[in-house]
Amino acid sequence: MKLIGSLASPFVRKVRVVLAEKKLDYDYELESVWDAGTQIHLSNPLGKVPCLIMDDGTPMIDSRVIVEYLDTLTPVCKLLPPQSRDRASVKCWEALADGVLDAAVLVRLEHTLRPAEQQSAAWIARQMNKVHAGLAAMSADLGELPFCKGNQYTLADVAVGCALGWIQFRFPEIDWPEDYPNLARLYAKLSERQSFKDTVPQ
């Protein structure tokens, strides 16, 4: 398999963490989707990473689709429960974490791609409200549990860890570790895993 991605994308990081946890071999091809000469559209018509090229050359797109597929390839470190209710709960955690990232990415793009005089303060505020509401919801749902779903490390933790890491990377002014000590404890624990150490955004 070959993964097309970047070193900064939290969605690519999520896939890389899962690949590492599942101990799956793959080639990694760096691609900057913002470069004029990007070729990502040849594999993903949406022009986005991550994109997983499977052994037969078929592309698979969207991080949520990719990680769910990867979890089926080996019983090593199962990240998604087989039961429908528990599985849906883990996927809801992932959707919440990804939603926080979607909003934060929109704010970053507004700041970096638009001249200051064209930026919409109302749009930025709307997206940042989603980020802060999402962080508060993650903290409330985590409570004092060791992991998002209790005692077991799952895809929920991977998704939340990647979201927290990217916000810390791109929005250091958001002091979520101070506001949500339980999320800070979870992130510190996740950061000790080799899969997270090897995929720090840059």
**Helices and strands, in N-to-C order?**
EHEEEHHHHHHH
CATH classification, class level of the largest domain: Mainly Alpha
Kindly, what is the distance between the CA atoms of the first and last residues, rounded to a whole number of angstroms?
Answer: 23 Å
Query: Number of domains in the coordinates?
Result: 2
Helix fraction bin: 40-55%
Overall 3D form: globular
Largest sheet: 4 strands, mixed
Please state the second-level CATH architecture of the largest domain: Up-down Bundle
Strand order, sheet with most strands: 2-1-3-4
Structural class: alpha+beta
How many distinct helices?
8
Rg for CA atoms: 17 Å
Percentage beta strand: 5-15%
GO molecular function, one term: maleylacetoacetate isomerase activity
Protein name: Glutathione S-transferase
Keywords: Transferase
Pfam families: GST_C_2, GST_N_3
Structure in a nutshell:
The chain is of the alpha+beta class and 202 residues long.
List the SSEs and their pairings.
Layout: E1 2-5, H1 10-21, E2 27-30, E3 51-53, E4 59-61, H2 63-70, H3 84-113, H4 121-142, H5 155-170, H6 176-179, H7 181-190, H8 194-197
Helix pairs in contact: 1-2, 1-5, 3-4, 3-5, 5-7
